[in-house]
Amino acid sequence: MTFSFKTRQTNIQQAKDQTLDLLVIGGGITGAGVAVQAAAAGMKIALVEMQDFAEGTSSRSTKLVHGGIRYLKTFDVEVVADTVKERANVQKIAPHIPKPDPMLMPIYDEPGATFNLFSVKVAMDLYDQLAGVTGTRYANYLLTKEEVLAREPQLSADNLQGGGVYLDFRNNDARLVIENIKQAQADGGMMISRAKVTDILHDETGRAIGATVEDLVTGETFTIHAHVIINTTGPWSDKVRNLDSKNDLPEQMRPTKGVHLVVNRSKLSVPQPTYFDTGKNDGRMVFVVPREEKTYFGTTDTDYHGDLNHPQVEQSDVDYLLDIVNHRFPEAHIKLEDIESSWAGLRPLISGNGGSDYNGGNNGTMTEESFQRVVHAVEHYLDNPSTRDKVEQAIQEVESSIDNSINPSQVSRGSSLEVSQDGLLTLAGGKITDYRLMAEGALAKIQEILAKDFQKTYVLIDSTVYPVSGGKINPQRVDEELAELAKLAEAKGLNEKDALYLAHLYGSNLPTVLTYEEPIEGLSARDSYSLNYALHEESVLTPTDYFMRRTNFILFIRDELDAIKMPVINKMKAFFNWTEEETAKHTADLEAVVAESDLKKLKELGQ
Predict the structure, then answer these.
(1) pLDDT per residue over 71-80, tens digit each?
(2) For 267, which of 62, 127, 263, 426 could close a Cys bridge (C-beta 3.0–4.6 Å)?
(3) CATH number belonging to the domain at 478-605, selected among 1.10.8.870, 3.20.20.300, 2.60.40.420, 2.40.300.10
């Protein structure tokens, strides 16, 4: 199978020439999850995405498959149970992407603290039970103040009580999307990037039967007809609904903006992901995460009303995060000029859902006795699900003071599946960890509609065991199997570090990657294999696609980017047969993205 710009043209032609079972609008993680399950079930399916796959939101997360331990302090036991269960499912179907990476939570005695040492231990024990890791090497443990400082000597000692360590997973969000997209394509789906829906089509009865689509590469406008249409556009969900003249559902999205900043590890060194209250008594928490040779930190969480296509890091975001990180790590002295790269992304939150996100939540206090009652009730629930009413009763009886106002950090990450009167489905909300489960629910509804209204019967796959592209690895032996795959690259002459890099990036697809042996002038063997594979098998259309979303050069390997960007552009020019004008445009687009990630304008204003 190849999946290139040539495949794209074939996909468009095939999508135009037939009535599909399903048209998916939106190629982030939600749409990709729907697509892979639909294609695996044998449905005739096309997916259209107006940007690159994962460009809008799904490459701009905190890059964790987070378990949501903070939910436990705000009573969302069922949310945590679902989240950790889904995290395990994602690790099974994409074992080369999410990797276990235990999280350290330093505990400070200060106003608005999420946990104290007692309550964090209770929460972690409950969390371990829900995650099924009690008694394993990933079981939680407490650290004394001295042990926390020995592990992270840059941390502030003021008011530090100690810390807790519990299981979490790091993630490569954009890679998770493209591996789902590739699998859907391999299973017969038509995956089309840079194709924008401009209108929803209806038959004479008013039923939604397709969409008008603009090819943003060629300028062509065409139509796709389908029995079922599903809107999976995240923050753009309301905009797509508004394209549908027959839609009868109200707007529901309340996007918030999150920002992350990247510095060299020498400026801020942590041995593992670290998660702490901001210290501002504002209901937010901040991550500090080691990645490659860098450390990144975030996130802010503010309501967003700007251009959905182009959220940006602003000076206020930088000031907020630097203030927090320099307070927690007082010897770091991080300044604007130390920031090597950055990203801003939108969370597709659903308005009106009070509750807690992992980054924020209710600041109401709860007595330890009440918290213990919840814990004991949940323990019984795990042994006997029929006692769920006792969990609900314990929660209702909890002594707490709850602020009924909903700030941006308190909007639920819950998802919703709604059907408009004309049949348009909208699957919105949620988070990356839940994408498979969200898609499973949507597929059940799509299956029902196809059977009832079109007499078309499909048997759905068990998506908890259906690996994505690159994921044909035993999830119990990930490190061992990736090391074995890396030996194949070493046999081609790559050093151990580069071989492991490719194995972790491509998983079980590495043997295919290594068939693309053509050397590229100006690139190492590692990067030649990577770029050739991306062009032929990962539907890369621009240099930014490659540097930002198929690899992490812009964000985490910034040091190497300047030396290889022209060799990559020159290869693309030849591969796509670009004119000088087209090459100049793509080069300028890349330079603009890099300058924005570098915070070039903010740095110039600060001089």
Answers:
(1) 776 657 777 8
(2) 263
(3) 1.10.8.870
